[in-house]
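Sample pair:
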Amino acid sequence: MSKIIDARGLSCPQPVLMTLDEIKSGTENEIQILVDNEASRENVTRAAESQGWTIGQIKKDGDESRIIIKG
């Protein structure tokens, strides 16, 4: 089971900080991040990759995106 971070409605840097906090907790090897704007989507994926995580999938549904990262 992966952790889900609901960052919809939040502007950067909040989604990035939430993602980095979860990565640093070390409790999950897969995290799903929900965002609702392009800037957050790009910044979260960039931040995850900078921590050595891979982007498993990005599912877009209108303005919302589900980013699945794997560590």
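The mean pLDDT is 97.
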